Amino acid sequence: MKTIFCLLSAILTSVAVLNAQTLTSDINPKIGDVYTNHYFETDDINPGEAGTEILWDFSGLVPKDSSQNVNVVGLAVANETTDFQEAEEVIKEGSVYVFIKAGEDSVVNWGNKGNFVVNRVVHTDPQVLIKYPFTLNDSFEDSIKGTTSAEYMNFPASGSHKGKAVVIADGTGDLKLPEKEYKNVLRVKTVINMEYTVKGFGPDITIESDIATYEWYVDTIRHPVFTIIYRNLSHPLKTYNDIYAFSSVDPETVTSKEVPLEPVVSDISLYPNPSSDFINVSYDLNKGGRVKIVLKDSAGKTIQELANEHRHSGSNVHTFDISRINKGSYFLEIDINGHKTMNKITIQ
């Protein structure tokens, strides 16, 4: 009888694993993604159990009057080109920049800048954030090391850091948040233990950081839909113990598995036209997307790229200085995610 129960348990566990979310590079962040982290009160918040068929019920969380926009941008936006080695994308939240490379088999963190206390971290041995494919009970360990810059009371310092990350997909089930419910989510737990040695404040200072992060994923969104972070940071002057919890979802970050409407531009207006000093370009978007505006001559040759940025749905207006461009007839090419329109302008 005991053997039968063990066999049934193994079969049920196998079925649960087969039904679990499997994360692939479809969830990689893409330049142009914009979403918002909505924060909750975190008194005594518990991340819940690991395992299969779990119901993580956070529907009773109290929202804070606090949110933070997150943008996925290029290196130039972060005023960085070389320090972070192979990084190709930057995740920007407020004044914090995280430099990553999102590939087919993994996402790698090459460092960050803008954090409190340790304000510039460059990994020479980078941190692997996630490997693909990644599903229930998958796990890996990764070493991290590099150089560190810090500042305290306007005194700069520098040094090095080393540590280890352990990542495991430890649960699958359903997730209930105050604003929404998600079925068949995968929880990924990451524990990072770091030690920073900083010189420049006098005697060498050792800063220790222990961070446990719980992230809930669905395979149709290019970021976790819910995150809990437990952070312990200690140095000779003070110890910080912080807990953060936030939900993160916006329609622009839906993956190709749940295809949204294509961005469409309408009601384009160029004024004043003709003009000699500036021109306004206004238009409506049915959904957010990357907007590229290029000035071309009558033969179709590119004269100048005027804009290349993410724009939200609704009405948008750009103002461009054209005072240094020769008189004549030109075209403004407006490109919304590959959908192009040509609009004639005259510079007097």
Task: Give an account of the 3D structure.
This protein is mainly beta. It is 5% helix and 60% strand. The strands form three sheets. It has a twelve-stranded antiparallel barrel. Strand 12 and strand 13 form a beta hairpin. It is globular and about 65 Å long. Residues 1-19 and 256-261 have low confidence and may be disordered.
At a glance:
With 348 residues, this protein is mainly β. The chain has one helix at residues 2-19; strands spanning 34-40, 51-57, 63-73, 89-93, 96-102, 106-113, 118-131, 139-152, 155-176, 181-199, 205-217, 226-235, 238-248, 265-271, 278-285, 289-297, 302-311, 314-321, 328-336, 339-347.
List keywords for this structure.
about 350 residues; mainly beta; globular; 20 strands
